[in-house]
Amino acid sequence: TMAATNHNTRPGHASSSAAMQHTMHHAFREKRNCVWVMRHSVRADDEQRHRGRQADFAPDNPPITNEGYTLAKSRAAAVKPRLLSASRVLHIYTSPFLRCMQTALGVAERLGYTGEVLIDNELCEVMSPQVIKHAGVAGPQLPAETAVHQTFPGKFRFIPGTLPPWGSENAAEGGNAYQRYMAAIKRIASELPDNHDALVVSHGHAVAAACKLALPQAMIYNVEYCGTVGLEISQIVPAAAPPAPDASKQGPSLQISADKPPRKKPYLNPYASAADDTDDEDDDLDTPTVPSAADLSVRLLSTPGEFGVEYLDDI
What we know:
- The chain is α/β, with parallel strands linked by helices.
- The chain is built from seven helices and 13 strands.
- It is about 25% helix and about 20% strand.
């Protein structure tokens, strides 16, 4: 920080220009994380309807089929070369819906992942009767945390977060469900430490929302079961303060007036186009503001159709 912004600085108190430049040049850094977003695998109720059989499980929260479990492992094998690196740590997140949890277990098995899969309520299905068609008036009945731990001991861990109210969402492109998925993906990326990545198992609308994060004008027209997209999310974050330079080795100090604190200039995202700086005052006095979530840069790591997601990015 710059003590020069303190209005109580005594007139005549010297502050080193080189020391200020040193502080600002090291104030922020770029953090990059990869987040891969996968749709769940084959729903058992889809298969049974196709065969004309009555579902023998809760219709608002069906499991995946045996073939679906195989598909989850197959997709994980396809993505694995792009996903795993000896120098990076992977975390797996899932929606609380059973089909996503089971898909995540198949993915974890194929990747050799031994950590707990993180259940994140903000990755849930669109909470709308137009999407979850067989839910009752109270919405889908998801298993309680204790039941999950009894059924899958040591496999999952719930993280803080609440489900959206039943009936409060719509699945329209750009609607509040899309916004929720985008916010959840960005939150996960922002919470990941350096050299950590994530694989998120969620629903088809979440995969489409992930595409929209990188390509807002894209038209997503097909997300297969286990369809997957990869994102590289870069963010400007505060840097750890480096050791201050030895003041005894610096040149003449710069006088800073107590009645005119240094002006602030908006922080510029390095991925945005450069802004013209027509201000001819001394830029040594500029103090960058703290970056916000808007300082995210997102690019796709996968191409149309590569992992079961079809979209047009040139419309």
